[in-house]
Amino acid sequence: xxxxxxxxxxxxxxxxxxxxxxxxxxxxxxxxxxxxxxxxxxxxxxxxxxxxxxxxxxxxxxxxxxxxxxxxxxxxxxxxxxxxxxxxxxxxxxxxxxxxxxxxxxxxxxxxxxxxxxxxxxxxxxxxxxxxxxxxxxxxxxxxxxxxxxxxxxxxxxxxxxxxxxxxxxxxxxxxxxxxxxxxxxxxxxxxxxxxxxxxxxxxxxxxxxxxxxxxxxxxxxxxxxxxxxxxxxxxxxxxxxxxxxxxxxxxxxxxxxxxxxxxxxxxxxxxxxxxxxxxxxxxxxxxxxxxxxxxxxxxxxxxxxxxxxxxxxxxxxxxxxxxxxxxxxxxxxxxxxxxxxxxxxxxxxxxxxxxxxxxxxxxxxxxxxxxxxxxxxxxxxxxxxxxxxxxxxxxxxxxxxxxxxxxxxxxxxxxxxxxxxxxxxxxxxxxxxxxxxxxxxxxxxxxxxxxxxxxxx
Length: 458
Prior knowledge:
Layout: H1 6-12, H2 18-31, E1 34-42, E2 48-60, E3 63-73, H3 75-118, H4 123-154, E4 163-166, H5 167-184, E5 188-192, E6 199-202, H6 204-220, E7 227-235, E8 238-245, H7 279-289, E9 293-297, E10 305-312, E11 337-341, H8 345-357, E12 361-365, H9 368-377, E13 382-385, H10 394-403, E14 410-415, H11 420-428, E15 433-436, H12 441-450
Parallel strand pairs: 5-7, 11-12, 11-13, 13-14, 14-15
Antiparallel strand pairs: 1-2, 2-3, 4-6, 7-8, 8-10, 9-10
């Protein structure tokens, strides 16, 4: 290009990078050496690009005579580098937030445990401490469940169990689930339900999770005494749920990426609720799996926010069967002989004490070998087995116990492994139920209580 020269080139360099580029060329000319730099340039169409340039100064009789080099457009590479930096930053922030969220409930759990030791005969204090421990363990369990859920969902491992679902019952269940948080923060919850039953073809449990997550977000990001409104309506062929609040709002920069994984609002010292950045991506993916969409709107910081979920309505004449949740109070009244096998002595002993207080006869083993010895000494009609035992897996132990006569006994796996493949492996090994730690005591009592006592073969 005849009129292309240094002045033309430097004119296209971004103003913030011109000094760096000029310095690189000056040094190369002064030293009769080379230059190498990256900078931003502005194309004639005013678009911004990144380039990498390198070359050499050529001399004649010790005097610079010409320069030659190569220029490459590295805009795409820079975009990838920036995305990697942002991903790394979000990962670091997420890990810091995860540590914070896990430490928060551990503090009242530890304190309550100490109070129980100091005043074991104080009935009121025991009751209060027990409630605190139970509540905080539930919080940690929900946190871990969300982490596992978002992992499974993003990898496409979640399968929906579709059936006609009355969204009115979904909303009611979600409100009940988040109710304690809303009450604790003294919010005013306004409900505007649809005028008539609305049916969606979906997975009831996952739909409750979607609505509960949005309500929980609204509660956490709204200062004490704020207002939350849940409105349900029909729009053409869609059923729409709108959750709005008077909370801290969403900044314009955050709004476009609010559903991205590990995206979090700013957490300051006066805003303890920062979130892990996994709830909204989980909501988005679950809604999309149901053929719907979700959007967010906010007028800016301190001006509240609104999340809108739209799901396809399902026209059906089929009878909707309400979900039945188990209750330990419905357990059959019989005394079971239970063997608990867990190498974590605290876990095994506390579970054993719970079952004894409920009227069951319980033995405890901390290895597979001890379990087999106890089985030889007497029969049991229920086995609660950990999977990760020191001498053999719980799967192998279950097989051996059945081969040695426990064919008709009830087998319950209590394990920290909660993936779908783990459950399938447990069932394949002969377990009747697969429970993920921390095991819900009411659920365990329900399973044992409902089981008919069976005579074990000797």
